[in-house]
Specification:
By secondary structure, the chain is an alpha/beta fold. It has helices at 2-6, 10-18, 23-32, 42-70, 75-112, 128-133, 170-189, 191-196, 198-208, 211-224, 270-277, 304-312, 330-335, 337-341, 373-376, 423-430, 444-459, 468-482, 485-493, 495-504, 509-524, 533-536; strands at residues 139-146, 151-156, 164-167, 231-235, 264-266, 287-291, 321-324, 345-349, 351-353, 363-365, 370-372, 386-390, 434-438, 539-543. It has three domains: 2-17 and 125-274; 35-112; 279-543, Rossmann fold (3-Layer(aba) Sandwich), CATH 3.40.50. 47% of the residues lie in helices and 12% in strands. Strands 7-6-8-12-13-14 form a six-stranded mixed β-sheet, sandwiched between helices. A five-stranded mixed β-sheet has the order 3-2-1-4-5, with helices on both faces. A hairpin with a 7-residue loop joins strand 2 (151-156) and strand 3. The chain is globular, with a radius of gyration of 24 Å. The protein starts with a helix and ends with a strand.
Length: 544
Amino acid sequence: MQAYINIEQLDKAIETVERSKARDLVQLLTNRDLYPKGNVPQGIITELDQLRRNIPSLEKQLQVVFEKLSGNSDNTQLKQRPSIEESRKRLQQELQKSLQQLDQVLKEINDNYDSSFSLTQTVETIPFRDIQSLIDQGTAIIEWYVTRDNILTFIVTSHSQQPIVVSSSPEKLKTLEDWDKDYTNAYRNQKNQWITNLSTRLVDLATILDIDNIISKIDGIFEKVGGKCDRLIIVPHRFLHLFPLHALALSKGNLLIDRFERGVSYAPSSQLLKLTKEQQRPHFNNLFAIQNPTRPEAKPLPGSKLEVDKIRQYFDPNHSIVLAEADATEAKLNQNIKQLRSAHCVHFSCHGTFKSQSPLESALLLADADLTLYKIFKLDLSQCLIVILSACETAMTLSSNQESSNKDEDTGLPSGLDEYIGLPSGFLYAGSPSVVSTLWKVDPLATALLVIKLYKNLKRLPTLEDGDVSTALVNAQFWLRTLNSKTLARIQKSQKFKGLMAQIFENNKRDRRKFNDLLYAAIKRQPYPFANPYYWAASVATGT
C-alpha cells in the first residue's frame, strides 16, 4: 500500500486499504444476495434465504462458545463448562444439519434450474472508479487508515481522477494512540469527567487528525469546479470507529457537522456502502417497535413511552406493532416475526450493551432475554428501510489498538484487525440499508427528544432517498444543540404538554416523576441544556 503511495498510484493505494476493511461482512452480504437464474419455485428460494441467515448465526454462536471454552478458567467458568460443552455439541449438530440442508437445496437448484449457481462468489476489490460512483457531485468521502507508522487520510470526490492522500507524522500517530487511551479510560472509569471534558477532547482530536487541513483540501477541489461540498461520508479505521468524528471542532468555531448541510454519515468500508446502496427501498409506512422492556436488573427508561407513542403516530396503525414493557420479550418477537419481516422501520427503545471482550454477545436487552448480535444475524429485515437503536452503546464495535504481526497474504496488511463487529453489522446483514445507533451510554431525555425530532424530519420527506437519513439526523442534532432553557421551560409549563404527560404516564406515576426530574435538571443547564456533545453527538447514521 505504501509502495503505491510512493509511486503516486493513489487509486491503487485506497483499493488496497479497502481490501482490509469489513471483509467478513462484505463477503456475507455478497453471498446473501446471490440468486439462481431460471424459474425456481418460491419455496426453494425461501428455504435458501432461511438457511443463509441461519448458518452465519450458528457459526457466530459457536465462535462465542469456543472463545469461552478456550478462555481463562476461573471457578465460575469451571462450573459452567459442562453446560457450555452441551451448547457446543448442540450448535455443531444444528450447524451440520443446516449445512446438509443447504447442500440439498443447492443440488436441487443445480440439477433442475441453474447448473452454474454457486452460493459463494469471490469478492473482488472495489475499483476506485466504483468508489467515486457511490457519491454525487456534492459529496466527499474521508477514509482513514491507521498504519504502524502514521495516519493516512484518503479524500475521494467525483471531481478528481485520483484520491488525495494526507499522511501524518509518526509523532501524530503516537499522540492519537495516547488520546485514545485517555478517552477510553475516562469513559470507563471517570464518567462525569469524561462528559465535562468531551468538547475539549474533541478539539484535541481535531488537531491530531488535521481536520482543518483536510476540509481545506476538500474545499479546494470543489472551488476549482465551481461547486460546493454539502455532504460527507466518513469511513473510519480501527479505534476511530468509536469516536464522534462528526463533532470534531473546526478552527472557525463551528463543528464538522455544521459544515455539511446534507449531513455526515458513516460506513465501515466503501465496498460495504456500495452493497447497502443496492438494497434501498421505497416504502416507509410499517413500524415494528420495542418499548422499554420490563427487566428486574434494568432501570426503567422514563422517556421511552413518550418516544414510542410520538413515533407511532407517523406510521400506518394497521401495519404497525409495538411490544411494550412486559410484552417486549424474545418470545413475543418470534410470535410476531411476520410483522417484523414486513416492517419498513424497526425501532428499539431499550437498554443496550456492548461487550468488548465478546462483541458477538453485545445485545439489546428484551424483557426475557438478550437479543445478541449473533441472533440479529438470523433476522429477516428484507423490507426494512431503517433501524433506529435508541439504546446505549449500540454503535460501538470491536477495535484493536495494536496491529497484528500476521500479514494477510492478499493485501500484505495486518490481518483480521478491521472486521466490523457490532450491532449495526447484524442489522446491515439482516437487510436494513441504514442503521442509526449510539456511541456511548446516552442521556434518556436528550435521546428521546432527538429521536422524536429525527422521525419528524424523516416523515416530512415524500420518499426517503440516499443521504436523507444523515440529513434528517444532522437537522435533529442541530435542533437539540440549540434548544434553549427558556423554550424548554415554556414547553414544560404548557397545558398541551401537561396533558400529554398525563396521558402517557397515566398508570405510572414513578416514571412520570423521573421524567419530570430529568426535565427540570435540563432546564437548569442554562442557556443551552443539550449543547455538550454528550447529549447529541452519540447518534450516528451508518449506511445509506
